[in-house]
Give the backbone structure.
Amino acid sequence: MNAFATTPATATAPASAPASVSVPVSAPAPVSAPASAPDSESARASAPAPVSGTTLVASDLDRTLIYSTAALALGMPDAQAPRLLCVEVHESKPLSYMTEEAAELLARLTAETVFVPTTTRTRKQYQRIQLPGTTPKYAICSNGGHILVDGVTDDDWHASVVRRLADECAPLSEIRAYLTATTDLSWVRKHRVAEDLFAYLVVERERLPEDWLDRFGAWAGDRGWTVSLQGRKVYAVPKPLTKSAAVREVARRTGAALTLAAGDSLLDADLLLAADRAWRPGHGELADSAWTAPHLHVLAERGVAAGEEILRRFRAAALG
């Protein structure tokens, strides 16, 4: 069964909101229908003929498969720590890692399945990453705003997303104006816009005004946007801009019979809901809120060990 062709399972609401997040966290509603699939000659030419029985693996990257130094969670004695492989360099400095065992598992997985990196990162940020194994034909960036095919943006898909956002949501400029008018440099370190699709703030979390997040969330919700606090970042994302919509489109193109997914953050919830089988690590915003769903497997592992275990579970599920 391919859940991307049917109505996704309804999630079970968490027992309570995480203490670390100011906005109450509840299980999101099942994902809405994606923007209409591009039906142009160029889009059809970019998609290979579907392969019957294909398994599609759509995975978040940061704090799911790859980890910064701060997120590794190496709690064992130094002499027992796993060997690490650097998979991202930024400004001439190593930035993200996975274990060597995870790298080997991923290399095998990319040969056995349609592996689709699925990230909120912009295209430029994603292209810094050098994952082991066969280079993925498809990648999803900007939380579903861009589908890359052999490293090149699918312009038809992006245009369909932009049209839908214009039809259903307040413009990004209105969100930015609110952020400018209501934030204070004493607790905001950076204002950022991701590829003209969504906005986020980098904040001093301990200085974040107690009621600001609630007020912003309510205001943005009335305008078709969602707000979430994840680590030191406050994200404002249009409701129709979802990872699951883009993965659904890739599943359609590849004829996937089974879709597997993994993620750790609030922005991954719709993706996990829409997959046939899904996993989340023992860390992250979803873990903090005890978020679950009927088909979700909750792992005990945290940090880089969780990334390795997720890949092990992906391969076992794909191989049946």
Summary: The chain is about 30% helix and 20% strand. Residues 3-52 have pLDDT under 50 and may be disordered. The longest strand covers residues 84-90.
